[in-house]
Amino acid sequence: MTSQTAFDFPQPLAERYRPQRIQDFVGLERPKKIITAFAAKPYPSAWIFLGPSGTGKTTMALALATELPAELHHIPAKECTLEAVQDVCRRCHYSPRQPDSWHAVRFHLVLIDEADQMSPAAQLALLSKLDATAFPPNTIFVFTCNATDTLEKRFLSRCRSIDFSSYGMSSEITSLLASIWERETSGADLPNFQRIVKDSCNNVRDALMTLETEILAA
Q1: Which helix (H) or strand (E) covers residue 22, if one does?
Q2: What SS3 class is residue 28?
Q3: Mean pLDDT in runs of 10 for the chain (218 residues)?
Q4: Is 95 helix (H, G, I), strand (E, B) or coil?
Q5: Is 119 in the same domain as 199?
Q6: Going by C-beta distance under 8 Å and a sequence separation of 6 or more, which residues neighbour residue 168?
Q7: Taking the complete model, does pTM exceed 0.85, yes or no?
Q8: Same-domain status, 106 and 174
Q9: What sign for the dihedral angle of Cα 86, 91, 94, 99?
Q10: 32, 88, 98, 136: least buried by Cβ within 10 Å?
């Protein structure tokens, strides 16, 4: 019987055109420069990817895990509890698992989405885990969030912050939409790409979903 994983299932545009490598992201020149340099010479550390929704914070962390490469431990939004923190830090004390097609893996990468939504107990637990005396070996933490208002200053002081600003990205997002439209359609009347980008407030994911409806209507 043919395995279901072998089937070619259709994908939303946001998934089909999701960047796989750091260099493939639209805009974000400063984050790409910093993360590319870090990937070349990684070290145990904690990072905050800060910025609006849809600018690629989580996807950039996934690309970093691939390029290191690192064993990925992904804790979704609002699931970062005290128990989750304790469990992932325990697992990071073991040697990273080796992906079949990669060279030796030396790091764990713990990705915590929407870190500003983590439980107070989890944040307190991380204060000690991110301290130099208790930091899990060979581990990189990446926290994504839209704002840091609910995060303690002691927590923020243990992390390096990268701003994922969407400012100035409109022309690059417009060019991306135009190139995708050309690949996905044949001779249909062009939508107003600039209007799509403006209405999405430079949110790449939102712009791609709007473009998807335009393609379906073409």
Answers
A1: none
A2: coil
A3: 54 91 94 97 97 93 95 91 94 81 78 94 92 91 95 94 91 95 88 96 93 93
A4: coil
A5: no
A6: 27
A7: yes
A8: no
A9: negative
A10: 98
